[in-house]
Design brief:
heterodimer, A: alpha+beta, Cytochrome Bc1 Complex, Chain A, domain 1, 2 domains, 7-stranded mixed beta sheet, 5-stranded mixed beta sheet, 15 helices, 41% helix, globular, B: alpha+beta, 6-stranded mixed beta sheet
Chain lengths: 425, 425
């Protein structure tokens, strides 16, 4: 039996239906009034960091080639008959997929033929078809995708930083792997990963926009396989508290050096809560948003430019505030940011700054409920984190200055890495 | 979402477009000013940046940013976009909808006020912008152009256009733009600002909830201080290529970029545009296109190979990332596929798939404020058709129309950014 629960946010004036489907799949149907189109995601909690895993019944961890989650994403579009793209060509949907550190998502948007598109999506994601020939063909295409991302200096500086911060954790591995690592991928290995990670109990589904639960469930009841749930154990890599190396650099075809500075956070448990994430985002905004002295001084002194940005980078087994951009003097940027952190830790966040930043983040979190694609992606991410997409605005309404000041202490300036991409000579 | 834009003419080439919507969390306001690209080329790149950085009322950028944050993190900024051989200077604000404000503030009204303040009352001394702020914003403008080299796809596209349109305003080279930026002064910027307000075609668009009369009055009153002499921005359309220019440049990168530029027979931005869009889409648009299914899927030569129509200039560009050694193979295949288009040998399935996909995505573009705004903004000096009219025009395109459009394509430029593996050959 399917269990349906209505989830409402009075604050936002929004609601969705959360369905525990009889197949074991968590489903979310989020109708938006007046919308002509819908945006649908079928995702699995399986990404580039899942390089070692075992089922409850296994005694040993299975290790698989780097980049296999992404490779599987490409290959799932194929079937023995018509591939998924050819089927979508008949309905007019705009279909795509992506793989990140911790999830793989298949999606489409459409204004018409919702039911036919749901059938295509639920059918191809639940029916893998891999052969050695098609695997080989894909190695050429993905090889070019890998080379394309290798030429992206911002991407390169992020991974150079992750490799500097982390000694063992697979977050430092390129999402698509390398030309060498994907050469070890076989049809058998793809089936093995598929059978583990594409079990309905490890997946989530979300439809937003011009959608209704009835249509979605009619297709789901008919097409989703009913297999017993499985328990996946992800390896929690033994990661030292200290960084791997405080500094790493390489040369690429750029005009100005690019940098990324990260502060490796000590983890008591594999994952940070939604509240901890929002508290750290508040800290980072106080520290270096466009209203901060730090940002404006670095800008006026010619140390940074419009490319400067910061984020709280976190997932299963990793967490780090990261600051990045272009600079002729990355070492000086590092010095300034560290000094500002130490100074803020000493003086504490002021009540006025806290109030202003909280108001800004509250406004931004509301803005994210505008577009169907943003909502659907956030719903899936929240589902995998065991939280609700409505939690963000609520948390922002209840965080306190004391909490922010305590969270600020989690940034350890002694545990940082700096990566720099320098121009070729 | 079905929308009904209301156009209010406030003066010669000065109009406001109001799009009332229900259901969005935000109101989006943009002010677009269109002028010929060659007029104050460099100054018009700096202007939107400096205007949104500080103003007479908030000379301290920290104070201005604090004001934005207090408006629930309103996203307020400025940019310069290309539109054919025109420069579109834009100031924009996205803010939360009034009904979501915690204390009942008129957030959108306050944002309009602030935008007009930024546009009309800059931070100046006599007849010049403040020198320190000018120097900072000029540096940011220069560095932002220089960093385009980081994005190899964008960089190679720009180099193709500079080669193809070397005799046209559209192809003014980056080096010349950087030279021009070097010659700007606080006084030349002041003069350019006055000229922009006086000569531009201006469109203010507001999407969301708003007080229409109040906004019209505010705009009218702001422009009453300006001696308006609007000029028309025209773009030169070259219908046919004379001969093929080839240019190959070397860079230390892993993947070579191949960019082809075609003249496509257009006399103006609306000339037979529906047939041409469908033709380009079948040729190299979605995953059902000839280039995707052949160059990528069948031949495994690339990760992407796509065609796009630039209607504002009457150009079609094909872009692909490849191994240098495969250059001729890819060129031959692109030529063979274009021949198929010209002879009308594309399948009915491809023809129908393309029209279905284009119309499906058009039906959904008004489901986000950004979608509505960019549609309205692209019509700055043109009629604003309804989406239903556009869909009817696409549906009416015949196979013969597509063949005719294909036969008006002529290859003008083949540009290649060659990676390190290819440079030894």
């Amino acid at each position: 039996m399917n269990k349906i629960k209505e989830v409402v946010s009075e604050r936002l004036g929004e609601k969705y239906y959360e369905i525990s489907h009889e197949s074991g799949l968590k489903m979310f149907v989020y109708p938006k009034e007046n919308y002509s189109s819908s945006y649908v995601i079928f995702g699995t909690r399986y990404g580039s960091i899942d390089t070692q895993f075992k089922l409850g019944t296994d005694s040993e961890y299975t290790a698989v080639p780097e980049g296999i989650a992404h490779f599987l994403e490409h290959k799932l579009f194929e079937s023995e008959e018509l591939d998924a793209f050819a089927r979508y060509a008949k309905t007019g949907a705009n279909a795509n997929a992506y793989t990140s550190f911790d999830r793989t998502c298949y999606l489409f948007s459409c204004s018409e033929n919702l039911k036919a598109n749901l059938e295509i999506l639920m059918d191809f994601v639940t029916h893998p078809y891999f052969t050695e020939q098609t695997v080989q063909k894909e190695q050429g295409i993905i090889g070019q995708e890998i080379k394309m991302t290798e030429d992206d200096p911002m991407w390169a500086s992020l991974f150079l930083l992750l490799g500097a911060m982390y000694k063992n954790h697979p977050v430092q591995i390129e999402i698509a792997g390398t030309v060498e690592s994907i050469s070890h991928i076989t049809a058998d290995l793809l089936y093995r990963c598929y059978d583990v990670f594409y079990n309905m109990s490890n997946m989530a589904f979300c439809a937003v926009g011009n959608v209704d639960a009835e249509t979605v469930l009619e297709v789901a009841d008919r097409l989703l396989p009913k297999k017993p749930p499985i328990k996946i154990e992800r390896k929690f890599f033994d990661e030292p508290d200290a960084v791997n190396t405080p500094y790493a650099e390489k040369k690429m075809a750029v005009n100005t050096p690019l940098f990324a500075l990260g502060f490796k956070e000590k983890l008591e448990s594999p994952e940070k809560s939604g509240r901890d994430i929002i508290l750290m985002q508040t800290v980072l905004d106080v520290l270096c948003s466009k209203t901060s002295a730090l940002y404006n001084e670095m800008l006026a002194d010619g140390l940074i430019n419009s490319s400067f940005e910061y984020e709280y980078f976190t997932g299963y087994g990793y967490a780090a505030p990261i600051f990045s951009g272009e600079s002729e003097n990355p070492r000086e940027v590092e010095k300034r940011i560290k000094a500002a952190v130490v100074n803020l830790q000493r003086e504490g966040v002021s009540a006025a700054d806290f109030k202003r930043v909280r108001k800004k983040l509250y406004g931004r979190s509301i803005m994210s409920f505008n577009s169907a694609d943003e909502i659907a992606n956030n719903v899936i991410a929240s589902a995998f984190a065991g939280e609700s997409v409505f939690d963000g605005p609520e948390i922002l309404g209840s965080i306190t200055l004391d909490e922010v000041n305590r969270r600020l202490k989690d940034i350890d300036t002694e545990r940082s890495s700096l990566s720099v991409i320098n121009p070729e000579e | 979402m079905i929308i009904k834009p209301e156009i209010v003419d406030i003066g010669e080439k000065l109009r406001a477009v109001f799009v009332p919507t229900a259901g969005f969390k935000t109101t989006l306001i943009t002010i677009d000013l269109l002028v010929p690209r060659q007029n104050n080329l460099a100054e018009n790149i700096i202007l939107p940046k400096i205007l949104s950085y500080s103003c007479e009322k908030y000379p301290d950028p920290i104070a201005l940013n604090a004001e934005k944050e207090a408006l629930y993190g309103a996203i307020i900024g400025g940019l310069t976009a290309r539109r054919g051989e025109g420069s579109k200077v834009e100031l924009y604000a996205t803010c939360i909808d009034n009904k979501l404000a915690l204390d009942g503030e008129d957030v959108s009204g306050l944002c309009v006020e602030l935008l007009l303040e930024l546009l009309f009352k800059p931070d100046c001394e006599g007849e010049a912008f403040k020198a320190d702020k000018f120097e900072l914003q000029r540096r940011l403008a220069v560095e932002s152009i220089e960093s385009e080299k980081n994005d190899k796809r964008l960089y190679s596209f720009t180099r193709m256009i500079e080669t193809m349109c070397s005799e046209e305003v559209f192809g003014i080279p980056t080096d010349e733009i950087l030279d021009e930026l070097g010659k700007t002064t606080p006084a030349s910027l002041y003069k350019a600002h006055r000229e922009l307000l006086s000569t531009a075609s201006v469109q203010i668009s507001v999407t969301g909830s708003f007080n229409k009369e109040k906004i019209i009055e505010a705009v009218r009153s702001a422009f009453s201080s300006v001696d308006r002499h609007p000029i028309t921005t025209e773009t030169l359309f070259v219908e046919e290529a004379q001969d093929v220019t080839s240019l190959t440049e070397d860079m230390e990168i892993n993947q070579s970029k191949l960019v082809l530029g075609y003249r496509c027979g257009m006399k103006n931005r609306n000339d037979d545009v529906y047939a041409r869009q469908v033709m380009v889409d079948i040729f190299g648009g979605g995953p059902y296109s000839r280039l995707f299914t052949n160059v990528r899927e069948k031949m495994s030569l690339c990760y992407y190979c796509s065609a796009r129509l630039y209607r504002e200039k009457g150009i079609v560009a094909i872009q692909s990332g490849i191994e240098a050694e495969n250059r001729q193979k890819v060129l031959d295949e692109i030529a063979a596929q274009l021949e198929i288009m010209k002879r009308g040998e594309f399948t009915d399935e491809e023809f129908v798939a393309s029209k279905t996909a284009i119309c499906d995505s058009l039906r959904g573009i008004f489901d986000t404020p950004d979608g509505i705004d960019s549609y309205i903004s692209s019509k700055i000096d043109d009629d604003i058709n309804s989406i239903e009219e556009s869909i009817a025009k696409y549906e009416a395109v015949t196979r013969e129309d597509v063949v005719r459009a294909a036969n008006s394509m002529s290859l003008d430029t083949v540009y290649m950014l060659r990676g390190k593996e290819g440079s030894d050959e």
